[in-house]
């Protein structure tokens, strides 16, 4: 049985301090990136669609066709929980502003870049159950 949306993701909890080495056993923690939390669902079988669900349950796969195309190469029935990021190669940093400017699919092509602006591409970072980036 494949897990399909909607799924309520586990949310982070604020803590006063990070536990010392070895306190959590095999668990790990990671830096907070500035992106959108998403769950990526690969199709349960041939002919299905890759789905992207935000933490609030919105389906946004139509806004990120390049990520969907890459995810189509993954095994069927896979669910990845991660953060959708946009890397600004010229600035050498993540750009939350570029992620926010991504138009919804019904809006058509993105507006022209402002003077000095540059195109960016979306990426996804995910964590497996051991907490290591994949």
How are the SSEs ordered, and which strands pair?
Layout: E1 36-41, E2 51-54, H1 65-71, E3 79-88, E4 93-94, H2 96-100, E5 121-127
Antiparallel strand pairs: 1-2, 1-3, 3-4, 3-5
Description:
The chain has 134 residues and is mostly beta strands. The chain has a domain at 36-106 and 118-127: DNA ligase/mRNA capping enzyme (D-amino Acid Aminotransferase, Chain A, domain 1). It is 9% helix and 22% strand. The chain is built from 2 helices and 5 strands; from the N terminus they run E-E-H-E-E-H-E. A hairpin with a 4-residue loop joins strand 3 and strand 4 (93-94). The protein is globular, with a radius of gyration of 17 Å.
Provide the β-strand percentage band. 15-25%
How far apart the termini lie comes to 24 Å
The quaternary structure here is single chain
Strand tally is: 5
Low-confidence stretches: 110-119, 127-134
Q: In CATH's first tier, which class of the domain at 36-106 and 118-127 applies?
A: Alpha Beta
Evaluate the radius of gyration. 17 Å
Please summarize what this structure is.
9% of the residues lie in helices and 22% in strands.
Q: What are its keywords?
A:
five-stranded antiparallel β-sheet; 22% strand; disordered C terminus; D-amino Acid Aminotransferase, Chain A, domain 1; 134 residues; 5 strands; mainly beta
């Amino acid at each position: 049985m494949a897990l399909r949306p909607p799924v309520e993701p586990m949310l982070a909890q604020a803590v006063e301090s990070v536990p010392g080495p070895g306190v959590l056993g095999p668990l790990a923690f990671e830096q907070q990136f500035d992106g959108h939390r998403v769950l990526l669902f690969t199709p349960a079988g041939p002919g299905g669609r890759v789905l992207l669900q935000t933490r609030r349950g919105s389906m946004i796969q139509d806004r990120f066709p390049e990520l969907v195309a890459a995810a189509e190469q993954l095994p069927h029935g896979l669910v990845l929980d991660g953060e959708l990021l946009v890397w600004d190669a010229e600035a050498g940093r993540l750009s939350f502003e570029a992620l926010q400017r991504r138009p919804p699919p019904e809006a058509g092509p993105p507006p022209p870049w402002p003077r000095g602006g540059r195109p960016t591409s979306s990426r996804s970072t995910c964590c497996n159950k051991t907490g290591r980036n994949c």
